Amino acid sequence: MPSSGGGKVYYVTRKVRGGAQLGKAVKGSSKDKKGKKDGKGMTDEERRLADSINRLEMSDYLKKLAVTKKAQLKEFMEKEQKISKMNKLKIQNHWRKIMRLVKVEALRKDVEIKSQNHERDVDRKDAIIQMLDRDLEEAEEQFQMALRSHLLNVDHLIDLQDGRLLGLEDEFEKDLHALEREFSVERDKIHKQHTVEKNELLSIMRAVETQEKEREAEARQEHEQLREEIRNKNLEDINVL
């Protein structure tokens, strides 16, 4: 029975025990049958009995032979299973090695492709960075130019503002001096007018005070006269009574 494992083929041939005896028995039986056929001292009943015995012996032998063959076949199958399992493990290990080599080669190619892609990306990004750097330098130059122009304009505006402020300050000083003169004149005028009006009020107050004193003196005099008249009249009335 053949068995393949690891690229090898095994052929197993076993000798069957009792084969020689089986041949001898068969040969003996054939001789006996031949002798019986010759009719040397055997009756029909004896021949039938001998045939039955031979058949029984042959049946027992075949059963034993079948059991022996079955056991041998089972043992052979177990050995074949062990060999097949071992060969399967060897094949799996060998296949794993092959797959590892294939995978490593594929990974190397993948890494190489990714490395090339990465280098291309790096080159592309370097080019972009250089372009952006140039743009940044140009923008910086434009900014510096704009800043210088702006500072010049600011300085010019500051000069204009300073001149305008100086003009406003001069004008303010002139207006201030004019207002001070007007205020001084107006103050003197008001002071003089106040003095005049004050003197007039004092004169009026003195005149009113004099008039009030005169009226008070006249009223006091009239009061004294009236009281004297009433007193005299009362005295006359008393005298009359």
Give a short synopsis of this structure.
The protein is an all-alpha fold and 241 residues long. The chain has two helices and two strands.
Give the rounded overall mean pLDDT.
80
- The sequence of SSEs as H and E is EEHH
Beginning-to-end CA distance, first to last residue: 201 Å
Radius of gyration: 80 Å
Largest sheet: 2 strands, antiparallel
Model description:
This is Dynein regulatory complex subunit 2. InterPro entries: DRC1/2_N, DRC1/DRC2. It is found in: Cytoplasm, Cytoskeleton, Flagellum axoneme; Cytoplasm, Cytoskeleton, Flagellum basal body. Residues 122-149, 209-236 form a coiled coil. The N and C termini lie far apart (201 Å). The chain has a domain at 49-215. Strand 1 and strand 2 form a beta hairpin. It is mostly helical and 241 residues long. The radius of gyration is 80 Å and the shape is elongated. Residues 1-39 have low confidence and may be disordered. The chain has 2 helices and 2 strands. Strands 1-2 form a two-stranded antiparallel ribbon.
What topology does this entry show?
Elements: E1 3-5, E2 8-10, H1 19-38, H2 44-240
Antiparallel strand pairs: 1-2
Helix pairs in contact: 1-2
